Amino acid sequence: VDDAIVVGESVYTLGSKGEKSLQASIMGTHLVAMPVTFAIITSMVAFVPMLFLPGWLGKLMKDIPLVVIPALFFSLIESKFILPYHLSLCRFDKLPKNWISKLQNKVSVGLERLIETLYQPILKVCLEWRYLTLSIFMGLLLITFGLIIGGHVPSIRGVPPVPSDYISVKLSMQDGVPAKTTEKALLEVERARLEVVDYLVGQNEPNPFRYVMKTMGAQPFSGGPKSSSNIVTGSNLGEISVELIKSEDRTRSAPQISALWRERIGPLPGVKEMYFGDVAAGGSRTAIDIEIAGHDLDKMSEAADKLKNKFATYEGLFDISDTYSGGKREMKIRLKPNGRSLGLTQADLGRQVRQAYYGEEIQRIQRERDEVKVMLRYPLADRKTLTALSNLRVRAPKGVEAPLEEVATIKLGQGYPTIKRSDRARIINVQTSADKVLANIPLIENDLDSQFIPALREEYPNIRFSFVGEKKEQDESDSGLAQAGGICLFVIYALLAIPFRSYLQPFLIMSVIPFGLIGAVFGHYLFGLPLSQLSHFGLVALTGVVINDSLVLVHYVNQRAKETNIFEAARLAGMARFRAILLTSLTTFVGLLPILFERSLQAQFLKPMAIAIGFGVLFATFITLLMVPCLYLILEDLKCLPSRMFGRLGFSSQKPKSFKDMEEVSG
User: Fold this and answer.
1) Does 116 reside within a domain?
2) What CA–CA distance (Å, rounded) separates 476 from 465?
3) Is the N or C terminus of the chain more exposed, i.e. has fewer CB atoms within 10 Å?
């Protein structure tokens, strides 16, 4: 509605001065045509970077510009053609006498009184003390940076910790355990859940669980939606996934319910890993994820254990685990040199051992509709002991038979149920979840990257360590946002330079951009939310929004400067555009209020963006009304500085008319 307000205010101003409705609509629309057009275009450009963000968060944010950009475009068309026609039908000289008109008149009179009695004196003082005014706002900006650096307004990586409506309990037993043992452990977890229900109902709280699903032999939901295409199965795996009732219908969040559930489970025999997670929409479930890549799994496992021990020393980290999983015991058979001399190969050994223990198909018998395979293999007594395996007769190609132990070595080892690879190297991921308010993730990662991991690299030179997961996603997103944001700022500068025909005035208009951070940080502090990546997206979108009012104000100063001195032009521009600037900011802020106070899960992802835009626009109003006129005069001071310096040197004593008039008024 920003463009509609500016056009409507311009038409209303002319109409209230006696112009006919049709003439006021045409002239009023024409007067603000340039600033309104370029304000909308710059707003559209500010949302473009969200179209090119990488990762899952980029896919999530992509829908916003796809809706906002067309909406802005059609609002521009409406404000240029449809709105002026509607305004031409209004009678500014004869207002209806209903209660709405009386209320409108009171608001209008109140705004005029506010401008005359409060804003005009403050603006005049700010213009006279323009360098002090600029210093005060710069000081506020430095204080804002200090609040962030000092941790008073925490800054976290990725998305803020948004409680989910789902909880998943992942259970991993020791390898090789029967399915019945896993089922008993799952029943114990389910028993603990029922105890949580009894406890909450006893506290006069609703039962938070809506649906419960128990899975044996797999973990389909433990890693969130992204893991559905890579489900690991096994008799030692199990999972219980629950859907909670809506967040507005319960008094406890998902992490609080998880904590109650965890307390009532206690130790479970045979459990290798148990993880409680909130299945959120996208993103990595782990706060820190370090990938260990190499070829020696034993050495990699040692390094993973050391990393896990290091994780345990940091406050706020929990559910520390790795993806390494040792399998069942196995016997590794390798051919000896004397076996090779008999003409045997490794494939011959494998085939004959398989025939002895698994069997060889010799016939198929048809039984009604079924076909039965007949397998020939050693009797059970010859397959039960290691001695029987050692004495297994192996036939060489030349017909010579020899015991297996004479032609091959037999060693007991451990197999691997799954081996993950990346760039042809085996990998193990060491992962941990975190309380993002308690744990300073960037500080922990910096400590690991600068001290602990270099020591591991020296100890294990053939192993590669790298941060992946959430940090990698964040780095990719920040890199994409920085590149797209830089191009966006350049395009906005070019768009502003074209109508103003100036290289300096676009900087004047864009100077309000960093000061929007003050309002955004205050809003996050007020709502108790940390600055997150979603807040950064909001600040990018804020770029196009906050310069709209500044653009309209500077354009009006330029118009009035043709008729009077610069000081008076800046003062009159502030007074003339006060109503439009205030209304555009308030309507933007009020329009975002429903998101700010919404409790649903979906709104929690948008709340940081809404806070950044809403409070940023609100504070940018003061910047536009007070600091931008001061910056305009400071810019004129800088333009006149060479003339003044040359005048003192005796080259010329004449000062530009605008600067002279400015001194006369300010004096």
Assistant:
1) no
2) 18
3) C
